[in-house]
Amino acid sequence: MKTQDMNRDWIATASTLNKALPFLQRYTNATVVIKLGGHAMGSDEAMDEFARDVVLMRQVGVNPVVVHGGGPMINAMLDRLQIRSEFSGGKRVTDAATMEVVEMVLSGVVNKRIVQAINSQGGRAVGLSGKDGAMITCSQTDAALGFVGTPDEINPRLLTDLTNREYIPVIAPLGSGRNGETFNINGDTAAGAVAAALKADRLLLLTDVAGVKNAEGEVVTELSAEQIRTLTREGTIAGGMIPKTETALNAIEGGVRAAVILDGRAPNACLLELFTEHGAGSIIRAD
User: Fold this and answer.
1) Which residues in the chain come in under a pLDDT of 50?
2) In what order do the strands lie in the sheet with 202-207?
3) Domains by residue range for the chain, with CATH
4) Predicted TM-score of the model (pTM)
């Protein structure tokens, strides 16, 4: 009986691979930018599963570029150091002391954890921040927010060089000011800007929700840019979903073929989106 069950499992696996072939061909040489949110990182087991997905994508010819957040980890470190942190309009007010902690956590702890997880699964990940190679040049978003930046220019040369050599870039969302300052960038915003600069085929925004929901609370699997604007005007898209959908729209306007908002806590979320017919989450395309 156990042998029969194992045979059925292998047959199901083979059938899944067979059905995935058109999608594997579809994404050969495609660039996919993945925003990995702090809440989506979860446990070590979840991180290892995400890393395997990314390595598999690279193995079948996709060029993955990972941009990560790390809000919960930053909060934990600020608490440990007894540094008070405030938010305004959903964005962290970042003074000089907070900026030091943000850079330490994002470029150090979080970035290297992701790099190590990918390398442990057989990949070749390289940890970066937007400061490396003058990749992201920022201006100050709002003086009241301190060292919070908005990307002005993205130089994708370093990323292109790495992906051409089959490395997997892992980017902490930090940028440089024109006067040498270091700026903290919203992770979604950084991912969208990088995706647009690379003219990525897909921007995957991994978060802690299943996707964009309609007025009835149901996840809408496909949306146009105009539908997103309508749902926002009606108040159906609200709160933390607004900056994510704005990031998706800006990326599409910048040349990204489509953006997807999906639950990064779900097993194999990236593979389900790219390599199955039903996909995962909410895909947003140009009108």
Assistant:
1) 1
2) 125-129, 168-172, 63-68, 31-36, 202-207, 258-263, 282-285, 222-224
3) 25-285 (3.40.1160.10)
4) 0.90
